Structures are given as C-alpha cells and as structure tokens.
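Protoheme IX farnesyltransferase
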Amino acid sequence: MDHAASASQHDDRLNVAPSRWRDLLALTKPGIIGGNLIATLGGYFLAAHGTFDWVTFASVMMGIALVIASGCACNNVIDRDIDALMARTRHRPLAKGRISITQALGISALLGVAGVVCLALGTNGLTVALAVIGWGVYVGVYSLYMKRHSEYGTLVGSLSGAMPPVVGYCAVTGQFDSGAFMLLVIFCLWQMPHSYAIAIFRYADYRRASIPVLPVVHGIKRAKHHILGYIVAFIPASLALVLASQAGAGYLCVALTMGGYWLYLALCGYRLDDDVRWAKKVFGVSILTITAMSLVMVLEAMVPMWV
C-alpha cells in the first residue's frame, strides 16, 4: 500500500471518531439540557436564600443534566419514525440510522442510572423522586403515547418540562412547599405558549408527521387564543413569588417587563399576516423571558453571599 492510500485511510478514521461523538452528543439534545440547567439554577438559588453548599449544588446540576440527557435519548428512539418525516429532525442520528436502537437505549440507561445515583448521593429522596417522575412523564406518558394521540400532549409534556426548577428548589429544602408549587405552576404555564409557538412555525412538519398539536387540530387562530390566555395566566403566576416574599424587586421588574412584552407580542398576532414570523418572535421572547427570570433568581440569592 502506498503512502497516499495509507494517509487517506488514517484521515478517514480520524473523521469517523469526531462524527461518532457528535452523533452521541446530539442524541442527548444539549440545547434542551442547557435551557433546563438554567431553570434548575433558578430553582436552587431561589430556595438557597444566600446559602450555598457545593456538594448539593454539584449533585443536583450534574444529576438532573444526566436524567434529562437520558430522557432525550429515549425520546429519540421513540420518535425516530416521525423525526424522519420532519425537516427539523430528519438528520438526527437515529432517524438516519447512524446509531442503533440498542446503542441509544444503552446510553439512555447508563445516563439515567448515573443521574439518579448522583442525585441520591448529594441531595434527598424527594429530589430523586421528582427527577424520576419528570423522566417518566416525558418518556412514558408524553413520548410513548400523548404526543401521537392527543392534542393535550403539550399539556402533559409541560409537567415534565417544569420539573427541573422544582428539582433544584427541593434539593435545597427537602420538601415540596408553596415555593416549589409556584415554580411548578409558573413553568407549566410558560411551556404552553412556548410550545404552541413552535407548533405554528413548524406547522408543516407537525402536519406531515400527523402529530395532533393544537394548531394542526384546531387551527392557528385558536392556537393564538390559547397563547394569549396562557401568557395572561403566566404573568400573575410569576409575580406570586414576589407576593410570597420568595423573590425580590429585581425579579419583579424583570417578570413584569418580560411578561408584559411577551403579552404585547401575543396581542400583535391578531393583526399580523405572517404567522410564521410572529410565532418565531413569540418563541424567542419566551426563551428570553424564562432565562432572565431564572438568572435574576440566581443574582438576588447571591447578593447576600457577596455582602
């Protein structure tokens, strides 16, 4: 074999390894993990009230990240057929057959067990139970059945999506109190307009894959009504943390400003003709809103630690 051919084969092997790692990473949906970790941070520091424990903090952040990664890997296995039909997801590793079902399930199991062990060693039984319930709802109820069979799948999925900040909160408190309940309600309400906005600007994908989301089943106009209604409910729910003295003035300003602008955008949807462009704005502001609210929870809690 000449040197040129040998070098070519060596380069091919080097290219395969990074591609393989990229596929494995994509299986866990890093973007979803990142967003949920910010929410977990908010929940943790909201409960911490200026105190900080490295073991608890590291355990809950690492543990919930691994549990979420496990759930996302499982979701990729379950959704591989509909992923292949949707423009946004058709290049996912399982949809393209670059990773086998057995490999994906093995990775999911490994990540899930590691996450539960991490939570069990550094937090408390309630935190472990909430993380497992969130995983079960996302994989067992939402992905396996509700997503494909009911327009209420989004509502069920919002419960698992709201679990990370509650997990962060309960890792500190060890109990499901009024603060944990308010976080659950806030993040559930936030998930709905966020998800409906995605369903509007990805309408063709969802319809092609026969996924019964609200805009596909009842039309975009009705989805706009629901988006507006959920945002109207979200704003006072988010402010309840201030009324309960769980959050301070900084959080109040951010929640009012971002929530108010999100509401303004929802109202704009009734007079704009480009639904796709509008829905993308609603989606983008939803991300900014919940991220800003979570981060200000962190900052308000950290101020007493600095002074």
